Fold these 4 entries.
Entry 1:
Amino acid sequence: MIELFGRKIGYSDSGKGRVLVFLHGFPESRVIWEPLTKALSGSYRIITIDLPGFGDSECIGYVHSMDAMADHVKMLLDELSLRKYVICGHSMGGYVALAFAARFRNHLSGLILFHSTAAADAPEKRTDRDRAIAAVKADKRAFVFQLLERLFAPENLPLMTEPLEQLKRIAGNTSPQAIVAALEGMKIRTDYIAMLPELEFPVLFIAGKKDVIIPCTSIQAQAKKCREGEVLLLENAGHMGFFESPVTSEKGIRGFLRKCFGKK
Ligand code: MLT
């Protein structure tokens, strides 16, 4: 953990070589990337970052916009003197990665949107966010626990006891302010569909066939808009492919990194 401009930022830094940055989703922390970090840090330098309010990172306001979170990420990567990297964002982390691409595109060698989308919230989804914010204020624990079960494909749940317990611990330790600030930020996020054709690096969309949070149906069309877009469809995963289909996810990410960085 380091303190930059008076803010604590939680992160991990392991391995050597070309750099892959992992950004977690909502309401998670960098801990979710531990298995992939272990698998990939023999070949790459892996940075995992706690987004504001999550894990060891402090809140930076009452609305955590995707832009403000992207600035938080950039501040840390600059501090580590990193200039060029691939960013892989899970869901909300993917929204942050897109905001990063809009602001600091020249630093990217590639982008992985893991169960994420370049589309902004539809009006009904914004109304759902307001309901979610009210629910968090009433009973944070009940809200997050109910949400976490929906992240996995129902048939995978019996095998997911450990990840689910881990996620409950993370969410249980996250403050209501951080959860509300992230929901507010996701609600007002920019639509980046029009940016996709401008991206001059490869983009990988990893989608779960059984994902009820980010349905895989619109993802193929988004990949087609990219100059170098591709989709990895995880047949047996919901919204948590790195836990539900770890081997296929790792293989897909490795292949994509070779494309971004050259053979390894
Ligand atoms: C996430 O998994 O990061 C969030 O559920 C994404 C969202 O709510 O849009």
Note: The chain has nine helices and nine strands.
Entry 2:
Amino acid sequence: MKLFVYHTPELTPTDRLPDCAVVIDVLRATTTIATALNAGAEAVQAFSDIDKLIAESEKLPPEKRIRAGERGGAKVDGCDLGNSPLDCTKDVVQGRRLFISTTNGTRALQRVENSPVVITAAQVNRQAAVQYLQQKQPETVWLVGSGWQGGYSLEDTACAGAIAKSILEEKGQSNPEAIGNDEVIAAIALYSQWENNLLEMFSQATHGQRLLSLNCEEDLKYCAQTDTLDILPIQTRPGFLVKN
Ligand code: 3SL
């Protein structure tokens, strides 16, 4: 297995695809996706465009769907939810399909949606992603951060580092063949510096600051937890994710 880290969708190559793409948006899209599936959502369908989300979701009866839309951290008018994982409780999502559109996370998903395998990871389900990669041993793996509007986000790269660190530890640190680009080493260094204090790191990060200004402190606390959800979202067709 060879690992590559790309900090943002914009930095992700366009001329090839990996055997497995791991999409990461710790604050908050991939945390929300994992939480919704863990709470019993039937599936998660991701859209970069809100109008398409509304049109597609109309095909299901109201009791079978729930719409989550976020722009700039805030809930989009016409949607039932914003992008807080804390809203994805059993009573809200169980048995329903979550239709979701977010500023960056759903764009990152779209960027690699034609890869043979696409999974999503966040800090809360990091170990489930690691286990999947260890079991399946895909030849090339891209860990793709969502960032914020083209810029890199600390928390996504740290999560990529958390996944890469576990994979490389299992393979023995001195395995340079497993490291596809320098970003892997940088991501592991970043994670190693903050692994015992992720909440502090999230609070300093620009998107963490943005969410704090929107009174989302509890979201930051939730998203900063490690390995609390034993669930792996996997794509079955472009933009369509189910529990593996
Ligand atoms: O950018 C995204 O996709 C979102 O996860 C951003 S937010 O955390 O919902 O503000």
Note: Residues 70 and 180 are 33 Å apart (CA to CA).
Entry 3:
Amino acid sequence: MKFFLDTADLAHIEEAAGWGVVAGVTTNPTLYARTGGKLADFPSHILRICALIEGPVSAEAVGETRGEIVEQGRELAALDSHVVVKVPTTIEGLAATKVLADEGIDVNMTLCFSVPQAILAARAGAAYVSPFVGRFDDISEDGIARLAEVIEAVSLYDFGHTVEIIAASLRSAHHVTQAALLGADIATVPFGVLQKLIKHPLTDRGLASFAADWEKVAKA
Ligand code: E4P
């Protein structure tokens, strides 16, 4: 499983890039809004992310019609070869994905919540499909069980092109563990979750005892 960072925060991306484990970045309008960025600065912001990360950077096309999504998608894809156009899993999104994919533009279909949505996204030509987990948990449903269904269903078919499942809306180390065990191709995680993933109390305890024993060696 690869790790993507689910943020538009440049400081967090720069910091996590240095850890050597971040294979890509996913952004969305909410994540960009959190940076305080202006609409006009969005393209340059995406370019700055691309300069920090050697891998796919999802930037969302925010249009209502297939024409608007395609137009924005083309503009975003033209920014940098790493840009993946994020498109909502709707009828207009499907139609736009087909056009963009036929032009050789990688699409990440987002806001996917069901098996049929995921299969349709893959059929339309999406290179990435993003089933959301945490938003199911938010409404007292089992997001991991829904993710498992999508991974299993997509794995049953040949779509004629590579389709990678991005486990999205992950909010905890538990979500990431389950996504890994289910065979998700990618987990996209907020910076805070990525920080928590490497922590373990036994690692800390082991380090403390090694340090204490090494001090004894130094004094001997
Ligand atoms: C995925 O690409 C989305 O940006 C993200 O995972 C949504 O997460 P949330 O449900 O925590 O907002």
Note: Residues 6, 26, 28, 110, 130, 132, 134-135, 168-169, 171, 188 surround erythose-4-phosphate (CB under 6 Å).
Entry 4:
Amino acid sequence: MSRKERLRQEREQLIEEKGIIYLDQVSKEYEKNNVAALDGVTLSIKKGEFVFIVGDNGSGKSTLIRLLLRELTATEGDVYVMGQNLKKLRHRQVPRFRRNLGVVFQDFRLLPERNVFDNVAFAQRIIEVPQKDIRRNVPAILTTVGLAGKYKAKTNQLSGGEQQRVAIARALVNEPAILLADEPTGNLDPKNAWEIMQLLEEINEAGTTVIVVTHNREIVNAFRKRVITMRRGVIISDEEGGEYIDEN
Ligand code: ADP
Ligand code: MG
């Protein structure tokens, strides 16, 4: 067996045993800040799960997301994504690693002067997908998110809910195994928030592992998914079919 094949099998085995995401006693301290943003977090998420992460401002939710994206590295402990220990990832391996992850933010982060098609195609051009495949993939994913008719619209002419759909299409067009959403409904009215969350649920049902940071109590309580609650850098509750726990 080749070394490459052996490493692939080791990763597969780790995913099987520990999950597609696995944090082992992870702490993160920012420089200039002597409080731990994450403090000894151990966590395992299985392939295909849908997980809500909730908690007060400053409890460490975004820090967790950024560790998974390898935008940050842990001060202590190990972060494994897709069976890879991110500490051992070399700098030049990071772009390829990130193809495993799609990410969506509260503020959409679209190219404002570009149309919907180009915003989504952009993600494919970066990884040098051939033009003929882009012409097939982008309309397909825009249909999935319910924007098939809007591909020519400039994104700054869309509603918030539509803009978030574009961002989701862009996050998904390269078919990542994991979708991370950091407060995706934070800028949306209740109706659009529901629709976006339902879309994320459909994406999960089609096989993508989905992790959603949110403050939306009604949605969390209605969806009956796994809920991880954080407070001051630690997980204080982790329940299947859980509820939104109040600050107290
Ligand atoms: P949440 O997303 O739950 O609101 P964060 O992960 O953003 O929480 O922040 C956790 C803690 O880390 C907070 O105390 C915050 O002030 C601190 N923090 C976050 N980002 C930085 C940074 N870039 N530099 C210094 N401290 C930070
Ligand atoms: Mg945050």
Note: Residues 185 and 193 are 5 Å apart (CA to CA).
